């Protein structure tokens, strides 16, 4: 017994073997307790979360299982170590490790809540997966800010003069902001595009004489795939400062076209033409007839102007409908012996001496 007591009371690095064993026992006890209680609690909360329609409880389960339980293991280790007498240097280092872990834990939890907020906003507004992808740009900025604040907090605990550091960053920040006005302008334009929604990924737009489909909206640039196949890259500021035509948002397309018939077409047949065209368009699916009029006397034809609407924004659909209408008009004109006009010129030759 004396031998055991003597062994347990031997001192190594300011602590007896008994104190090391007690510290180890505390850690193992806490570890088992957290493991058992964690499994029971997580299992019950998971069962409760499955019976609800909200997503917040699923978030809490995920945070509890992936963040809080591992964090509690570290807390149990810290509590067990506190039973021991540690050198001041090691004690200070342990304190900094705890602060570091707590800072990282807080930042990760904050980022998870921000991600959940973005997902909830996207689902609530019925936005597509491409919108969620676009929000990742904003999430990167938020992560940068959170990690920056965490670094400042940690440096403050290391003993750095944060006020002087922030003052220096403030002066440097002004210089950087002046040098990076274009980049900051594109960043704010990115926020405007994401939340004001002038266009989204998949929309077909026209900017000046350039047109194409939105492929990617980034923090600084937006990429557009043109009809020719090449990729067009615009800065976000260029797009928000330009007049953009968004054809994806178009509920119906207004179509205006003209056709000409020959001057020798009888008046009775000219009067039939508007009604013929009206019947053709009304018998074509996904169209709304507006008007058809004898428009003008041209150099070599009598011109009719026709206006109708195609329901939907799809360009290929519009071209299919226009083609169908053109075929039907050609067929109706052939039935009535109405001829389309084409450029002609009459030359009058005068013989010499006449």
- Mass-distribution shape: elongated
Distance between the termini: 152 Å
Number of DSSP-assigned strands: 10
Radius of gyration: 38 Å
Which segments are poorly predicted (pLDDT under 50) over 5 or more consecutive residues? none
Structural class: alpha+beta
Mean of residue pLDDT?
80
Give a nutshell description of this structure.
This protein is of the alpha+beta class and 354 residues long. 59% of the residues lie in helices and 17% in strands.
What does this molecule look like?
The chain has helices at residues 2-8, 17-50, 56-81, 88-124, 129-158, 162-179, 181-196, 236-240, 267-282, 315-335, and strands at 11-12, 15-16, 204-207, 210-217, 221-226, 231-235, 244-246, 252-261, 287-297, 302-311. It is of the alpha+beta class and 354 residues long. It has three domains: 13-161; 190-247, Roll (SH3 type barrels); 250-335, 2-Layer Sandwich (Alpha-Beta Plaits), CATH 3.30.70. The N and C termini lie far apart (152 Å). The mean pLDDT is 80.
Write out key terms for the chains shown.
3 domains, three-stranded antiparallel sheet, Alpha-Beta Plaits, SH3 type barrels, elongated, alpha+beta, 354 residues, five-stranded antiparallel sheet, 10 helices
List the SSEs and their pairings.
Layout lengths: L1 H7 L2 E2 L2 E2 H34 L5 H26 L6 H37 L4 H30 L3 H18 L1 H16 L7 E4 L2 E8 L3 E6 L4 E5 H5 L3 E3 L5 E10 L5 H16 L4 E11 L4 E10 L3 H21 L19
Antiparallel strand pairs: 1-2, 3-4, 3-7, 4-5, 5-6, 8-10, 9-10
Helix pairs in contact: 2-3, 3-4, 4-5, 9-10
């Amino acid at each position: 017994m004396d031998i055991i007591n003597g062994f347990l009371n031997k001192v190594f690095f300011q602590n007896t073997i008994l104190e090391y064993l007690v510290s180890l026992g505390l850690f193992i006890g806490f570890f088992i307790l957290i493991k058992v209680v964690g499994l029971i609690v997580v299992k019950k909360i998971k069962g409760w979360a499955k019976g609800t329609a909200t997503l917040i409880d699923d978030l809490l389960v995920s945070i509890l299982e992936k963040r809080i339980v591992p964090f509690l293991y570290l807390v149990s280790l810290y509590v067990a170590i506190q039973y021991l007498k540690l050198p001041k240097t090691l004690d200070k280092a342990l304190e900094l490790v705890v602060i570091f872990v707590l800072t990282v834990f807080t930042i990760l939890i904050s980022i998870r809540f921000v991600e959940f907020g973005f997902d909830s906003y996207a689902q609530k507004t019925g936005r597509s997966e491409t919108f969620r992808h676009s929000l990742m740009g904003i999430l990167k900025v938020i992560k940068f800010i959170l990690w920056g604040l965490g670094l400042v907090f940690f440096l403050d605990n290391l003993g750095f003069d944060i006020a002087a550091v922030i003052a220096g960053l403030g002066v440097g920040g002004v210089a950087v902001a002046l040098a990076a006005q274009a980049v900051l302008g594109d960043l704010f334009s990115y926020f405007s595009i994401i939340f004001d929604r002038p266009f989204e990924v998949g929309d077909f737009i026209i900017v000046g004489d350039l047109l194409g489909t939105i492929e990617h909206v980034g923090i600084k640039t937006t990429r557009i795939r043109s009809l020719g196949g090449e990729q067009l890259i615009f800065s976000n500021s260029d797009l928000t400062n330009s007049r953009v035509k968004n054809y994806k948002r178009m509920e119906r397309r207004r179509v205006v076209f003209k056709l000409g018939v020959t001057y020798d077409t009888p008046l009775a047949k000219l009067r039939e033409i508007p009604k013929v065209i009206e019947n053709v368009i009304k018998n074509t699916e996904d169209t709304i007839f507006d008007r058809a009029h004898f428009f003008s006397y041209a150099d070599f034809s009598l011109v009719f102007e026709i206006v109708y609407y195609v329901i939907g924004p799809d360009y290929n659909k519009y071209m299919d409908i226009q083609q169908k209408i053109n075929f039907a008009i050609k067929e109706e004109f052939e039935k009535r012996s109405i001829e389309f006009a084409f450029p002609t010129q009459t030359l009058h030759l005068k013989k010499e001496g006449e």
